[in-house]
Amino acid sequence: MEKKSGKTVLAICVFIMSAAVCVAYTVHNFSKSVVYSELGISGENFIALNRNSVLCSSESLGKNSFVALGFTQNQIVHIQNMMHESGAAIRITVKPKKAVSDLNSDFGYGFLTDADFTASNRLKRKAALISLVKGSFKTFAQQQLSLSVCLDKNSKIPAGVFFYSSVPYEVLSVKFTQSVVGWSREENLLFAFSSAGGTVADDFSSVDFTDAASVFSDSDYILPAIKLSFSKTDDIGTYQKQTSVRCSYGNENLLIRRSRRQTAVLLQTSAFSEPFAKLSLGENADMVRSALLYRNEVCPRSDGYVLDPIPTDLGLIVEWPRENWRTSSYELFEWEQFPGILFFDFADYKTQSRFLTRLAYFVEKAGYKGTLVGDEFVENRHGYNAHDYKSSDLAAFFSEARRTDFTLNESELLLRDILLHNKIIVEENGMYSAGSGAIVSISRESPLYLRRTFVAHESWHGIYFIDENFRNAVSTCYYMFDPRSMEFLQVFWETQNSLGYDRSDEYLMQNEFMAYIMQQAPFNVRAYFLGLANRGSVNVNQPELAAYVRETNAEPFVQAADFLNSYAFDNWGLAAGRVHLISRL
């Protein structure tokens, strides 16, 4: 009798033991007499349900090889915990053993369920299994390929996974990961699907998220976000013609401008009328390295109030569908490009006033700075149509209220909680001190064209609060500015009833100087300041200075705008009148 090699004996033993596993199989409850694969997670190997599955990570699997891996009870508990916390997907990473030239190089990947076992608990042949994901290695040469499929939150946990290919390959890993749908080609190729699965293709110009609602519709979290990552580029064009990626999401068209610093943007699906739709990339689609839909780790509400901000580009806020707000009175955002700047959008001026009018008088209003006005004053006075405040002023306001035992209203107490929650102010020894960041606000009561202007004006203040280099650039421009034009501007601020700025506050003067110049596009700067010089009230209060602005054709303002606009574009891809990278078209 011919002597069998040790490897042959091992193969026979593996086959016999694997067969025993199949016979003893019941869904999610494998027999103790099992064979384990080399592959595993968290220190525990998967169960090998056939011979190929034992050494699939170290030996080449030949043509038409089929791998079936079962999950242990501990691994199933791991998946269940992930599903409960944030959602889960099962990802397999494979690689063909050589460059594929055969047109017939198909592969399939799927989950094992009750239906994949016979009445006698034997695993069915691969022809009887239903693949959730199909594709061909021919498309991807010899690249490493990861395939991910999400689990529905209320679906049954699968018993395992299977993979097959018509060409030689190896399985590099099987992992439990967070829920994600889309594709990535940043380092290794990833194709991630909803529970409906799909077909792998090399068309990186679109991704359909329509089926993802079954994965991400979860009352514990807000609607998911699409993260688009981009290849780096130093050539972003000019502010008039900026390098951009065009795309559509559902029935909306978007323009995404490139910035040297920012290599990724978030598209919050709650910003759109169709949260789950198809994303199609147009111009400069080749710049997009990944398009992935993630679960948002942002809680919808806390005790009926919104404390966690939604990170987003400001270009999406102005027309954000109000039906997607988490409360009826306001929505809270965080500027994606400048973390720490919170952005309130209030339902109306009255709501905004209850939150911020007393604060406005305490921080900025001449004759009131440092004092806490009463409730009747707040109810009958209008602070501003839009607001901005730095962390130190916010801390001083709440500390003064604490020191004097002043009773704040419910909205102000909520504001304090939001600031503490987001570490814009911190509580120390019964008082408050500055954390990091700032807040800005607008109201839905303002008409759309003013909302856009207010977003620009107030958001430039936000950057000024948190960025020392920008403050230094503004200071340089401020001290180089024409003195008579500066006098015109400061008298305007001092004499307009709705403003009443304190001219003795140098920080405020430089900040407002910058914001008034940067709140409109450069080509509108001259017309804006000539318009101020032509106002009736301005000509009553300062006729000679108004005449001077007209005589100089507002040229000093135009020159200042050119200086500050160049700084903003070079550093952030922003421009005067535009504090966003994403525009709805």
Question: Briefly, what is this?
Answer:
This protein has 585 residues and is of the alpha+beta class. The chain contains 15 helices and 27 strands.
For this entry, give a set of tags:
31% helix, single chain, alpha+beta, 585 residues, 15 helices, eight-stranded mixed sheet, seven-stranded mixed sheet, disordered N terminus, 27 strands
Structure, described:
Helix content is 31%, strand content 24%. Mean pLDDT is 88; it is low at 1-32. The protein is built from 15 helices and 27 strands. It is an alpha+beta fold and 585 residues long. Helix 9 packs across helix 11 (506-518) and helix 12 (522-533) runs antiparallel to helix 15 (555-572). The chain has an eight-stranded mixed sheet.
Level of helix content? 25-40%
Radius of gyration: 31 Å
- Total beta-strand segments: 27
Question: For the terminal residues, how far apart are their CA atoms?
Answer: 80 Å
Largest sheet: 8 strands, mixed
How big a fraction of the residues is strand?
Answer: 15-25%
> Overall pLDDT, averaged?
88
How are the strands of the biggest sheet laid out side by side?
9-4-7-11-10-19-14-17
Shape, per Cα inertia axes: elongated
Q: Segments where pLDDT lies below 50 for 5+ residues?
A: 1-32
* Total helical elements: 15
Structural class determined from secondary elements: alpha+beta
